[in-house]
Amino acid sequence: MTAGLSLASLFTQDWLQFIVVALLGFLTGLELRGYFASKANHYTIGTSRTYTFIAILGYVFATLDPLFHLYLAGMLFLSLLFGVFYFRKLQADQHGILQLLIGLLVYTFGPVAQHFPPWFLLLLFVAIVFVLNARPVANRIIEGIDRSELMTLTKFILLAGVVLPLLPDTLFSPYVPISPFRIWLGVVAISGISYTGYILKRYIFREQGYVLTGLVGGLYSSTATTVVLARKSREASGLQGQLVAAIIAASGMMYMRLLLLVLILKPGLLSAAGIPLLTLGLLVFAIAGILSRLGRSNHLPDNVDHGGANPLELGVALLFSVLFVAMISLTHFVISYFGQQGLALLSVIVGFTDIDPFVLSLLNGHYAGVIDMQLAGAVLIAAGANNILKGLYAVVLGERRSGIRILLVLTAMGLLSAGWGYFIFTA
To answer: Structural domain tally of the chain?
Structure first.
């Protein structure tokens, strides 16, 4: 065996596959045993050794018979065994089939190790452990979730997974330099990112520290989060330091959100925009962390409602698509008649509104004479102007002293962002 042998090549060795399969079977058994340890009078089958032997049995059968006849016979025997066990559980008025499902999954460890890359076997094991430990979070989501949101999510998945591939990828017209496919792809991307933040804040991180509230809220909308937390600072006596840090953290998340949009919609722009967006985001996080330490408090926030609609609501998505088309038409008009300097000025003006439609227009449009460096610079300029706008919101809507601190930090970051963007724009 040479020193340069890769992990994938090493994993083709039968002895290593056998050891890994047996070990993961044993660890799964331990995890399952811990899962049922707190359940009194609950019927269980087997120990960690049982699941180790199940994993070994699957590996041996799959090795002896490449046509899988012996393996399938073993699966049938295992299913019958678990079926008898389940019948006994039903007599005791217990209905869960979790052990049956996990037993069958462990039985697949062998052929998975033989026919898939190593990461897939590890991913399968991690998924089992994650699902077993996710029960408290899952129960909390199930108890508090609005069923109408499930229908909204279902409709959106239909439009994203079925309708999106059917849309033509040809330009509307010379005046609207984008295709229907790219329009809806942009809506799907921004709505999906916003929905992730919406779900995290509403169902998972409802009662966490204010800084975490700002981070998660910034994934949804940093502007909306700033408005809500600024208003909160008027009534949260003694917590202004944490609220200041939370609002600044939300603006840091804005840069990460923009970086994610670039990665999804225009990866070629990463060479120009990736380092500035990542650097500015981390810098803002560092400032928020310092301010959080200075104003540390053990108080947990009330459930903060960002006041926005579910970003997957079809009405919201359609309105956003209209704004998106309008913004891309305006951007095309400005570039056509006022050139590159017109785009830079438009970036500043748009920064004092909602920048998402503008950023998507830059990432999805086709603009003659505009290079990637200028697109990246326009994104950074708009983000910088938007930071100044949020600072003004904090002063007008929040506690005065806290608002001034936020304005100073966000203005400094906004000028740094806009200055960096202009430097890239004119390079």
So the answer is: 2
- pLDDT tens across the length of the chain (427 residues): 444 445 556 667 888 899 999 999 999 988 888 777 766 666 777 788 899 999 999 999 999 988 899 999 999 999 998 888 888 888 777 777 888 888 999 999 999 999 998 889 999 999 988 888 876 666 666 666 666 777 777 877 887 887 788 888 887 677 777 788 888 888 888 888 878 777 777 766 665 677 888 888 888 888 888 888 888 777 765 556 788 888 999 999 999 999 999 998 899 999 999 999 999 999 999 999 888 887 665 455 555 555 556 666 667 777 778 888 888 888 888 988 888 889 999 999 998 888 888 998 888 877 777 888 999 999 999 999 999 999 999 999 888 888 899 999 999 999 999 999 999 998 7
At 249, which amino acid appears?
A: A
Do 166 and 207 belong to one domain?
yes
Quote the domain boundaries for residue 66. 7-133
Per the CB < 8 A criterion, the answer to whether 48 and 24 are in contact is no
256 and 322 both lie in a single domain: yes
**HSE-CB for 85 with a 13 A CA cutoff:** 18
Q: Are residues 256 and 379 in the same domain?
A: yes
250, 253, 254, 255: CA torsion to nearest 10: 140
Cα-based distances in Å from 327 to 9, 175, 263, 343: 51, 12, 21, 12
- Tell me the angle at which helices 48-64 and 69-91 cross, rounded to the nearest 10 degrees: 150
Is there a domain that residue 2 lies in?
no
Number of other CB atoms surrounding residue 19 within 10 Å: 11
Decide which of 104, 133, 162 is a domain's last residue. 133
Using CA atoms, how far apart are residues 165 and 161, in angstroms rounded to an integer? 7
Is residue 416 situated within a structural domain? Answer: yes
124 and 163 part of one domain: no
| Phi/psi of residue 380, nearest 5 degrees | -70, -35
> What pTM did the predictor assign?
0.68
Q: How far apart are CA 332 and CA 265, in angstroms?
A: 19
CA distance 133 to 131: 5
